[in-house]
């Protein structure tokens, strides 16, 4: 475990606590899948005539297209912040800024991989909502439902959930900012996931699994960076950090 800096807090959750949280959420997800509530929730927004809000302007162009573009803008800003840090990023080491930016890309990659190998179709593809596919559990591996597939987990919600990994990059030096970052990422993910559900693009389970996968990817990426830091030396180019390091060296 790294030595605590003057700005660090020893109160952030240990890996054992994080494991307990992660497994508890996993159990809740399995329970949700077993409950069979996905279809019932989708029927709140659609019928045999389809989903009335599927092409609604605000949901489609702002919550879908606009939010997706905004997510990539944030990724770009975080990537630029690795080398040209601003604000709170100046108080992070180079490796921490790199972790903050790359964790989002890793989470997006994980979701993309799962989607590309998934046989699960979207709710609007099902016969219950005017399509041709039948409802098959996303755990029924190898069984085709008659639709286009590639709809599990929720890719659009990952435009918010992908940033939960930033919590791990911030928590050691800025625990309060880390919690705010985590809360904002989760809130945005559920808002975007909800928008897709009312359009008929995803089931609730798709959104929930996206959140869990992004969280788990962020945590594993954090552990990888911790192991990396033990075998590599990162030099931060920010003046504040350099002056602090020089002062400690002479004290």
The dominant shape is: globular
CA-to-CA gap between the ends? 24 Å
How much β-strand is present in the residues?
Answer: under 5%
Mean pLDDT across residues? 88
Instruction: Give the helix/strand class.
Output: mainly alpha
Instruction: From the alpha carbons, calculate the radius of gyration and give it in angstroms.
Output: 21 Å
Please count the beta strands (DSSP E, at least 2 residues each): 0
Low-confidence stretches: 1-9, 235-251
Largest sheet: none
SSE ordering: HHHHHHHHH
Number of helices: 9
Helix content: 55-70%
Describe the protein in words.
- This protein starts with 14 loop residues before the first helix and ends with a helix.
- It has helices at about 15-35, 35-40, 55-85, 95-115, 160, 165-170, 175-200, 205-230, 240-250.
- The protein is mostly helical.
- The radius of gyration is 21 Å and the shape is globular.
- About 60% of the residues lie in helices and about 0% in strands.
- It has a domain at about 60-120 and about 155-230.
For this entry, give a set of tags.
251 residues, mainly alpha, 9 helices, 60% helix, 0% strand, globular, disordered N terminus, disordered C terminus
Write the layout of secondary structure elements.
Blueprint: H1 15-35, H2 37-42, H3 57-83, H4 94-117, H5 158-161, H6 166-170, H7 175-199, H8 204-229, H9 239-250
Helix pairs in contact: 1-8, 3-4, 3-7, 4-8, 7-8
Brief rundown of the structure:
Helix 3 runs antiparallel to helix 4 and helix 4 (94-117) runs antiparallel to helix 8. This protein is mostly helical.
